[in-house]
Amino acid sequence: MNRAAIFFATGFEEIEALTVVDVLRRAGITADMVSVTGEREVTGSHGITVRMDKLFDEVDFEAEDMLILPGGMPGTTNLEAHKPLMDKVDEFYGKDKYIAAICAAPGIFGHKGILKGRKACSNPGFESHLEGADVRQEEAVVDGHVITSRGMGTAIPFALAILEQFAGAEAAEQMKGKLVYKA
Which CATH number applies to 3-174: 1.10.10.60, 3.40.50.300, 3.20.20.20, 3.40.50.880? Predict the structure, then answer.
């Protein structure tokens, strides 16, 4: 595994999205920032505009190993409203390929039935959307090929959990040291 796509919709949570991109790129993993808006620049929930690497229609999904959904409002709602992305989430899940979401975005997985019988977490205000999940209060939860996390304050543990799936526990531990992250 060496490639992840992180999806950006208007109103995304900046720290959640960009922390994952930063950590993966530091580790040498290709992390494509993908706009679902049809525009090259996407503005987050706190007014920060980011230039994307790709538009949704430019992604070679066969080459991607993981799909990552940041939270934020209305970013999460906007991601869930993008039917082609939701079709790809279903496809990846059905093929046992990795999918990951943080903050409010794990609720998307809950709405799709993906979390039934799985351990999962989300932002405390969105736990009711984790339909059928064994809800946890952990910073990041990996259950099979589904990764969830709670919010902005857990962006680094989320990114490290993703990195661990790509490069192993030792690489994630080394990155934790490089980031001077103390859990």
Answer: 3.40.50.880
